[in-house]
Amino acid sequence: ERDEEALAREIREELGCAVEVGPVVLRHHHRYPDLEVDLLFHSCALAPGAEPSPLGVAQIAWAKAGTLERYDFLEADRAVLADIERLARS
């Protein structure tokens, strides 16, 4: 399974909707004390008529620009919030 296919599948399973997965726009390597992770962030668009629902997650929210830091993210994700904000504005 390619990364793009895995992302589309995970979104279907967790949010119950289809997305069009685009190119990688950001990559981040993070080292926890007992684990290393490589995070790939893809540009995505909801498929026409798609509406996300919190199926496999506790809650979802549409975050306004400049508000990501108010949400509870894992350490590896927090390291790239400013980059994600910048990419969302471009």
Descriptive overview:
The model has no long low-confidence stretch (mean pLDDT 93). Strand 1 and strand 2 form a beta hairpin. A two-stranded antiparallel ribbon has the order 1-2. Helix content is 29%, strand content 29%. The chain is globular.
Summary?
The chain has helices at 3-15, 75-78, 81-89; strands at 19-32, 35-46.
Whole-number radius of gyration?
A: 14 Å
Q: Order of strands side by side in the largest beta sheet?
A: 1-2
State the helix count: 3
> What would the principal axes of the Cα set say about the shape?
globular
Largest sheet: 2 strands, antiparallel
Oligomer: single chain
Strand proportion: 25-35%
Unreliable stretches? none
Q: List SSEs in N-to-C order.
A: HEEHH
Mean pLDDT across all amino acids: 93
Helix content: 25-40%
Separation of the first and last Cα atoms:
30 Å
- How many β strands by DSSP? 2
Structural class: alpha+beta
Helix-strand layout with pairing:
Blueprint: H1 3-15, E1 19-32, E2 35-46, H2 75-78, H3 81-89
What tags apply to this protein structure?
alpha+beta; two-stranded antiparallel sheet; single chain; 90 residues
